[in-house]
Specification:
This protein has 271 residues and is of the alpha/beta class. It has twelve helices and ten strands. The strands form two sheets. It has an eight-stranded parallel beta barrel with strand order 1-2-3-6-7-8-9-10, surrounded by six helices. It has a two-stranded antiparallel ribbon with strand order 4-5. 49% of the residues are buried.
Length: 271
């Protein structure tokens, strides 16, 4: 691995081999998502507990303080919305030159495997990998499923992750599922868990994050299940404890409850 590529990967994946990414890129297809109407304010108290920020160029420029941020994973795919005909019909929206100007540590792109636009999204990934490798910028492939959430099973996600790795992604973001070890074991590059729509309870999120970490994931990229929580700072602190401290769900719940009791919307320096 070239020095630049290795350096960028080390910014994202911490010395323990794990990572906590904070995605706030949802507006590129959802618009002003609930509790992300002002993304800069939403993410500010969460940044001390994140290892990297997953964001579009527009929000990065307009809402993130360049003097006080974390490494950037730049969302570079898009072109569709929830009111359009098909979320899978994406293209690459941001050039590699723009990513370099914005000092991105990695680029993120969605894949829609099993859809009408499968070939297009896979070729998008291949082209982006070519550009990223040229400049030492890793690519994170996101195994999106659009509106078809029932596709999130181990067989399908294992297929998606392996294909993403085969085409050159350095990291793959995918959903947690039952038998998650099947997904991880078939993917030769690191796997990070996505969150998807907000879960019913905080405990539910802690449960699947813990299971995924025990079954080989290196970290998380959870947005709505953190910043749509009634207590976002306690939530990210609890999840960080699972990811970086190998905490049990019980221990994570204790962190959550303790932080909540101390006003969880005010950040403090992570332990």
């Amino acid at each position: 691995m070239d020095w630049g590529m290795a350096n960028r990967m080390s910014q994202l994946i911490q010395p323990d081999g794990h990572c906590v990414f904070m995605p706030i890129d949802h507006g590129y297809f959802l618009g002003p998502t609930s509790k992300l109407e002002q993304p800069g304010k939403t993410v500010e108290p969460l940044l001390p507990y994140a290892d990297a920020l997953f964001v579009t160029r527009g929000v990065l420029r307009s809402a993130i303080d360049p003097a006080n941020t974390k490494p950037i994973v730049l969302r570079v795919s898009g072109g569709t919305s929830t009111v359009g005909a098909d979320l899978a019909n994406e293209g690459i929206t941001t050039s590699i030159e723009e990513a370099i100007r914005l000092n991105a540590s990695a680029l993120g792109i969605s894949l829609f495997i099993g859809t009408e636009f499968e070939k297009q999204s896979l070729l998008n990934l291949g082209k982006l990998v070519d550009e990223g490798e040229k400049y030492g910028i890793p690519i994170m492939a996101v195994t999106a499923v659009g509106k078809e959430l029932e596709k999130r099973d181990a067989r399908y996600l294992a297929l998606c992750c392996r294909i993403a790795a085969e085409l050159g992604a350095r990291v793959v973001k995918t959903y947690w599922c039952e038998d998650f070890d099947r997904v991880v074991n078939g993917c030769p590059v690191p796997v990070i868990m996505a969150g998807g729509p907000q879960a019913d309870t905080e405990r539910e999120v802690m449960d699947f994050v813990h299971d995924g970490m025990q079954n080989g994931a290196i970290g998380i990229n959870l947005g709505r299940n953190v910043w749509q929580s009634e207590h976002p700072v306690p939530m990210i602190r609890a999840l960080r404890h699972i990811v970086h401290e190998n905490a049990s769900v019980k221990e994570a719940q204790e962190i959550f409850d303790s932080a909540k009791a101390g006003n969880g919307r005010v950040a403090s320096v992570p332990a």
